[in-house]
Amino acid sequence: MHSDARIGIDKDLCIGAGQCALTAPDVFTLDDDGYGTVLPGREGGEGSPLVREAARACPAGAITVPEPVN
Q1: What is the rounded distance in angstroms from the CA atom of residue 59 to the CA atom of residue 44?
Q2: CA torsion sign, 1 to 65 to 9 to 16?
Q3: Beta-carbon contacts of residue 29 (< 8 Å; ≥ 6 apart)
């Protein structure tokens, strides 16, 4: 992924299903209110092949994963 690319979770869309944290726990966690959040320093998703799978697993479609830049 390009260094400017950032994974994001739309807090207005997130329903707290937790699929992101279950699928890619090295990148996502749940905050104190039970909503998905990206772990500090993991916004680029480097090293996790499961980031895109976590985005697909999100029932609310709240996760944004930038396309890799070649």
Answers
A1: 22
A2: negative
A3: 21, 36, 37, 39
**Dist CA 41 CA 17 (whole Å):** 23
Residue 27, SS3 per DSSP: coil
d(CA 50, CA 61): 16
Nearest-CA neighbor of 65 among 5, 21, 11? 5
13-35 tens-digit pLDDT: 999 999 999 999 999 999 999 99
In this model, does residue 1 exceed pLDDT 60? Answer: no
The answer to whether 1 and 46 are in contact (CB under 8 A) is yes
Give the pTM: 0.86
- Check whether 43 has a pLDDT greater than 50: yes
